[in-house]
Amino acid sequence: MQSSKEQAPVFSRAERKARNANLRGRFGLVLYVVLLLLPIYWLVNMSFKTNTEILSGLSFFPADFTLENYAKIFSDSTWYMGYVNSIFYVSMNMVISLLVALPAAYAFSRYRFIGDKHMFFWLLSNRMAPPAVFLLPFFQLYSSVGLFDTHIAVALAHCIFTVPLAVWILEGFMSGVPREIDETAYIDGYSFPKFFVRIFIPLIRSGIGVTAFFCFMFSWVELLLARTLTSVDAKPIAAIMTRTVSASGMDWGLLAAAGVLTIIPGMLVIYFVRNHVAKGFALGRV
Amino acid sequence: MQTKVENNKAWLLVMPVFLIVAFSAIIPLMTVVNYSVQDIFDPYTRYFVGTEWFKQVMLDSRLHEALLRQFIYSFTILAIEVPLGICVALMMPTKGRGASLALILVAIPLLIPWNVVGTIWQIFGRADIGLFGAFMSYIGVDYNYASNPMDAWLTVVLMDVWHWTPLVALLCYSGLRAIPEVYYQAARIDRASRWAVFRYIQLPKLTNVLIIGVLLRFMDSFMIYTEPFVLTGGGPGSSTTFLSQSLVQQAIGQFDLGPAAAFSLVYFLIILLVCWVFYTTIMNMQKDK
């Protein structure tokens, strides 16, 4: 009895302490997110200003609100085709990566075979190869097979880091599916392709979604290879943005508007995979 | 550890991946190897020079400086991003709508194209039109990333911290979510301090994700190119010229194919070595589980 009386205030003090720590944590998080969003807010703010306003001084809200910068992008085909090109090769890359990575990831998660570990490491090492190393050879390779300045060239070049990533993530998700399911399906008379498409793929739907998201993301943010392998027809938006530098100085408003438009696709897709993002980044190994 | 079935037919399933990656990886790599042992004047005049370029690269002081700068940079950002990422992860709410919102907001920088990240900071850091630059001059710091090497370096570090801390935070967050509530209850009964909970419950659970996080951050910072290229172009002087920058300058700018190829190979081997160490560590840890 005595001891419980003593304990009661101690517990509530501990609870109060925990609540304080919680509040402090909330505050810290809000502060972090605000600092995180500040540069983006500045970009958005700037994209709605005219160039004269940008250069005449700082203001936290556009005094002379204008959509002119966006209008310029959407009315000029050399600008908006950049977005179309980017989305086009990113989608192609996503489809290719998933198609080849699905069977391979299944093999890695279910079977042991000669050289499997070496193969896996070799794939990983490609994810780690600096694109700068391959710049010139890529240019020559794709020129010599006549693929220079096509979407498929960029999509294939990006496969060098999206395919290993896709295999890693999918393998992580597939290892979470119990093997008994495979065996039961075979006993029930399913052939391998039928089992794979009808039973297995639906089971790892979320994993496939996350993988697609990561292929999208890494292909979308890459510029160096995409810029090197294209000149006119398949030029990505990221490379077109460099055009805002001209003899009369930078067109800051236009640059900011183009930047804002490149952020939007990412923000749209992340909503769908918000609960799996971390697992994907951990290569399916949390 | 679940046992896997031994079956060499699995190679058939791996074949498409092998072919597609080999096309984009082995052929260019062999081209690089080919260049690295030749002196090339034009496509028809080339001489075999053996290991000369490798000797030259190994003794080139510019590259030593770039390598040193690279290591300092990579370790600096790791030293900032890993603790900061853990802190952010510990502060993130675990349940409800707040959790989803926090996840999405924190992940935003990861989805911005790398050159746009450079652009954002290029604008943000300018004293005349950028909030950060204006703030620095307001508090009396003479800050100009375009002319002062130290400022340029700090801006690149700050940009990387802004860009990639979310990755570490997300990884740690998912690691923390994997800890069963029972552990915390036990800690509460033992009246463990906040620090003890972190040190003996949360940190051990985080090692796995942290190794992956450190691996990814080390590799990606080691091949950083686009962001400093847009922000500073490697300058002022060569204060933000990291390895990739140096390589591209040599290969495309001066068109020194032979030395650039030898440099590429050395660069790739360094990364491969570090990569292998991490890989074996991760694989061994999974075996222990």
UniProtKB/TrEMBL annotation, chain A:
GO terms for cellular component: plasma membrane. It is a multi-pass membrane protein. It is found in: Cell membrane. InterPro entries: BP-dep_ABC_trans_perm, MetI-like, MetI-like_sf. The chain crosses the membrane at residues 26-44, 87-108, 120-139, 151-174, 195-221, 252-273. GO terms for biological process: transmembrane transport. It comes from the Bacteria. This is Sugar ABC transporter permease.
UniProtKB/TrEMBL annotation, chain B:
The chain crosses the membrane at residues 12-37, 71-92, 98-117, 152-176, 197-219, 260-279. Pfam families: BPD_transp_1 (PF00528). It comes from the Bacteria. It is a multi-pass membrane protein. Keywords: Membrane, Transmembrane, Transmembrane helix, Transport. One of its GO terms (biological process) is transmembrane transport. It is found in: Cell membrane. Residues 67-278 form the ABC transmembrane type-1 domain. PROSITE patterns: ABC_TM1 (PS50928). Its main location: membrane. Belongs to the binding-protein-dependent transport system permease family. SUPFAM superfamilies: MetI-like (SSF161098). GO terms for cellular component: plasma membrane. This is ABC transporter permease.
